[in-house]
Amino acid sequence: AELPHDDFRCGTVALAGRPNVGKSTLLNALIGFRLSIVSPRPQTTRHRILGIATSEAGQIMYVDTPGLHRGAKRAMNRSLNRAARSAISEVDLVVQVIEAGRWTDEDEALYDALVEQKVPRLLVINKVDLTKDKSTMLPFVAELMARHSFDDVYYVSALKEKGLKELEKGILKRLPVQPPVFGEDEVTDRSERFLAAEMVREQLMLRLDQELPYATTVEIEQFSDRPDGVAEIHAVIWVERDGQKAIVIGNGGAQLKAIGTSARRHMERTFERKVFLRLWVKVREGWVDDETMLKKFGYTD
Ligand code: GDP
Ligand code: MG
Questions:
Q1: How far apart are CA 22 and CA 8, in angstroms?
Q2: Residue 39 Cα, ligand 1 centroid: separation in angstroms?
Q3: Quick check: helix, strand or coil at residue 284?
Q4: For the segment 56-78, what is each residue's pLDDT rounded down to a tens digit?
Q5: Which phi and psi angles does 129 have, rounded to 5°?
Q6: pLDDT in tens, 31-43
Q7: What are phi and psi of 235, to 5 degrees?
Q8: Which residue in 189, 237, 276, 298 is a FRET match for 11, CA 20 to 30 A apart?
Q9: Is the CB of residue 137 less than 8 Å from the CB of residue 100?
Q10: Hey, which CATH number is domain 192-296, 3.40.1190.20, 3.30.300.20, 4.10.320.10, 3.20.20.150?
């Protein structure tokens, strides 16, 4: 590929941060596309996802990472940790995302791990929309910077899309001058099939209580384009026990129907065509602890 112009920048940027600070929301805002699923629950993101933003100035390939999980007893959490670690090695720049006004032990532990990477490091303070008294921000940041080293600090609200242009500029100028890797219309390295599974999983995260979402995963058994232009998608929701299956289906199938309707609408917007979605709920005991099943379900990072 050729350089579009002398100062075209291109590189990979890891969005790191403890669970729930808003990494996925930020990724979506930066690429202008609802790619990474978002819910108020920690551990919503289970996969390494590349989101691509291309402009006149350059191409930024963002890596959204599952947060690091402490005390990873279950095989799935260990797999998430491997994915998070591999996502932050081999990048050109690391963005550590935190919540405005909060620096926790988990942020500190992640910082210690990120310092090992010999690449530029930016601090992004997200959710500034939640800070009522802005005068508290300066002492908070001054305190932080006295004990930590970052190349720069940015204040953003991923939700309200504030401060993103400045952040983008700060990222671009620290990336290498090199030709783009992806075409200018590409927003991700992931397939529609993968995104479809994520959209069903997003509904499970949003609608199921307590521990149940963590006992579920979604497998796409069929994704085909029919002659009438409709995408026909068959998805299996895997759970660990019969009782969980009953809850996912709900009274008279109401819960499953609601999951399907919302997921289908999201798919139709994203894939820009009509979608026929069929859902099944199946039981596979202990899949969360089973490395072989995790591979089958795509947790292979
Ligand atoms: P992740 O675990 O770091 O990927 O976090 P998510 O992107 O999934 O976001 C976690 C929660 O924080 C969700 O409920 C988001 O809507 C919320 N959130 C993310 N960014 C912002 C923000 O800028 N302001 C506010 N008020 N909430 C946000
Ligand atoms: Mg996330």
A1: 28
A2: 7
A3: coil
A4: 999 999 998 776 666 667 777 77
A5: -65, -20
A6: 998 888 888 887 7
A7: -125, 140
A8: 298
A9: yes
A10: 3.30.300.20
